[in-house]
């Protein structure tokens, strides 16, 4: 039953509804009233926290396009507009709706969440740029963002408008997307290379229906809501572009001293607290964020490349006190090394986009990183109520100083059983040799905490011509990490951060072990050729 169409052609429609669970922190930015404030999470017109359909569609499209950077193969599916031809192209056949975020899985009467996520449930992730010369925080490069913790839910709804000739292929493409979402291969939002944005599609709430608009029975089934549920599973006819080649590295490790990243907020009794992340409805775990681990790896990689290539770090302080001058000089530190830039990414600038290099590409052509580092959480967990006692301890009864909060003995004993304890420190007056007044400080030190493995993913496709030299540099960093030369976390100049790596597992590569990879002659030749050429250019 076909009719003369006056609009977009559609014979059938595939409709997917389901729940995406956040398995790592998630940030999709909203509008900030003040650039100096913490970056907020997006809210919709009903003041609900949500992920816009545009953000979801962009992530889904990027995954489907795989190694095809032109996107030409999927233009009929996701739509396109020809450059400098605004009236050309076509709209996407995929309709992705906004996804409200909920704390529980129950639906309301309108099909949205019965329990929308509250702002009070959000966490905050802080970060700072490190000046490569001073080793201290770079002025003007402090940032913070609010994040949705793991364990919350996105209400996903997606339609694919289908013509009969494309039905089998579109079913297969939907099956491929479902499989990728189940396997946590699609990241949402910002800072994906720093461990944010992992989600998992839940099978128990997955609902896929096919609406047939070509027959009377199909139209009636759609109107009555009785279309049959059918989750496609055959991906053989998806005809997607080649997948990106990915190398996965997993490092099993243990701390040999306290290892932690400092929480941005202070506790009442213990001022310096380790960063934590919710890992379940009733659990929080200590966390080394992917941004911190990635920063440690990048710092050591820069040290190795500068040593090999004989390149000194430019001093950003020699450019005056103007903030813009310092910002440009600091970015010059980050953008000086090609292989580091290929692995760890670089910010795009207007000057860079207008300045092509000898290959015809913009000078800062790398953009997002090829290396993704996941958050690493402790195997030890605490109840949220226990952690609230740590953050907001009450004053000690019977103490002369009524304003001095302390951890109660039961809480401190529980923390000790988990491998954490309060450590008190004091600054020493350089004249008297005694304790300096009002300079007592304390830290909740995780001295006996065990951790899950550190997990890295390297997008080999993105490395392009730098693939072998970048891999060689990364393997050197991993070797040094295994040898105890790369500390993790904060306060590494004060006895923190020492680790011992037990094993390094590689997946998706031609080597079975780190030692075998380090002995690869092709990588050694590529690395030597790279730094030899770099030394020739800088001499």
Layout of secondary structure:
Layout: E1 12-22, E2 50-51, H1 53-65, H2 75-78, E3 94-96, E4 99-102, E5 123-130, E6 137-147, E7 153-162, H3 167-182, E8 199-201, E9 207-212, H4 216-224, E10 246-255, E11 276-280, E12 283-288, H5 290-309, H6 323-334, H7 338-344, H8 350-353, E13 371-373, E14 376-382, H9 384-391, H10 409-417, E15 420-428, E16 435-446, E17 454-459, H11 460-463, H12 467-482, E18 499-507, H13 514-518, H14 521-538
Antiparallel strand pairs: 1-7, 1-8, 1-9, 2-4, 3-7, 4-7, 5-6, 10-17, 10-18, 11-12, 12-14, 13-17, 15-16
Helix pairs in contact: 5-12, 7-12, 12-14
Descriptive report:
α5 packs across α12, α7 packs across α12 and α12 crosses α14. Helix content is 27%, strand content 23%. A hairpin with a 6-residue loop joins β15 and β16. The chain has 14 helices and 18 strands.
Write a concise synopsis of the structure shown.
This protein is of the alpha+beta class.
Total number of beta strands? 18
The share of residues in extended strands comes to: 15-25%
Q: Approximately how much helix is present in the residues?
A: 25-40%
Question: What can be said about the biggest beta sheet?
Answer: 7 strands, antiparallel
Extract low-pLDDT stretches.
352-364
Q: Please compute the radius of gyration using only Cα atoms.
A: 26 Å
What would you call the shape? Answer: globular
Distance between the termini: 75 Å
What is the residue-mean pLDDT, rounded to a whole number? 87
Structural class: alpha+beta
Task: Please work out how many helical segments DSSP would assign.
Answer: 14
């Amino acid at each position: 039953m076909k009719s003369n169409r006056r609009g977009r052609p559609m014979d059938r429609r595939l409709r997917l509804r389901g729940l995406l669970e956040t398995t790592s922190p998630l940030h999709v930015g909203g509008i900030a009233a003040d650039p100096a404030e913490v970056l907020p999470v997006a809210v919709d017109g009903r003041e609900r926290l949500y992920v816009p359909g545009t953000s979801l569609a962009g992530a889904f499209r990027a995954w489907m396009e795989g190694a095809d950077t032109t996107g030409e193969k999927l233009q009929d599916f996701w739509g396109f507009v020809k450059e400098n031809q605004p009236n050309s192209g076509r709209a996407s056949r995929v309709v992705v709706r906004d996804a409200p975020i909920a704390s529980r899985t129950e639906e309301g009467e309108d099909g949205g969440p019965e329990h929308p996520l509250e702002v009070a449930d959000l966490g905050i992730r802080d970060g700072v740029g490190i000046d490569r010369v001073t080793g201290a925080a770079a002025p003007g490069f402090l940032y913070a963002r609010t994040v949705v913790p793991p364990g919350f839910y996105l209400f996903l709804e997606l339609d694919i408008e289908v013509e009969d000739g494309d039905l089998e292929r579109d079913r297969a493409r939907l099956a491929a997307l479902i499989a990728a979402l189940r396997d946590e291969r699609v990241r949402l939002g910002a800072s994906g290379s720093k461990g944010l944005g992992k989600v998992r599609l839940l099978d128990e709430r997955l609902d896929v229906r096919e609406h047939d608009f070509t027959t009377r029975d199909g139209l009636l089934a759609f109107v009555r809501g009785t279309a049959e549920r059918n989750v496609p599973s055959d991906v053989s006819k998806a005809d997607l572009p080649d997948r990106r080649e990915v190398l996965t590295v997993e490092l099993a490790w243990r701390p040999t001293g306290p290892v932690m990243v400092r929480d941005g907020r202070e506790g009442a009794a213990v001022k310096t607290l380790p960063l934590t992340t919710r890992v379940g409805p009733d659990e929080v775990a200590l966390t080394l964020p992917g941004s911190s681990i990635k920063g440690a790896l990048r710092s050591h990689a820069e040290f190795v490349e500068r040593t090999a290539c004989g390149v000194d770090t430019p001093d950003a302080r020699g450019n005056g006190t103007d903030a813009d001058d310092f910002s440009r000089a600091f970015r010059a530190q980050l953008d000086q090394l090609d292989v580091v830039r290929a692995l760890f990414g670089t910010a795009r600038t207007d000057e860079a986009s207008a300045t092509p290099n000898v290959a015809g590409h913009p000078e800062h052509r790398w953009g997002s990183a090829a290396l993704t580092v996941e958050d690493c959480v402790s195997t030890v967990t605490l109840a949220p109520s226990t952690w609230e006692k740590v953050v907001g301890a009450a004053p000690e009864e019977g103490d002369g100083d009524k304003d001095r909060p302390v951890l109660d003995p039961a809480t401190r004993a529980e923390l000790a059983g988990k491998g954490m304890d309060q450590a008190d420190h004091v600054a020493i007056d350089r004249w008297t040799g005694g304790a300096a007044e009002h300079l007592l400080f304390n830290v909740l030190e995780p001295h006996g905490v065990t951790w899950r493995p550190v997990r890295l993913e390297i997008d080999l496709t993105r490395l392009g011509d730098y693939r072998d030299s970048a891999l060689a540099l990364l393997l050197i960093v991993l070797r040094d990490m295994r040898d105890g030369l790369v500390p993790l976390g904060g306060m590494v100049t004060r006895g923190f951060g020492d680790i011992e790596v037990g094993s390094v597992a590689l997946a998706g590569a031609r080597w079975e072990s780190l030692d075998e990879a380090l002995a690869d002659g092709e990588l050694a030749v590529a690395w030597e050729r790279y730094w030899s050429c770099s030394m020739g250019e800088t001499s």
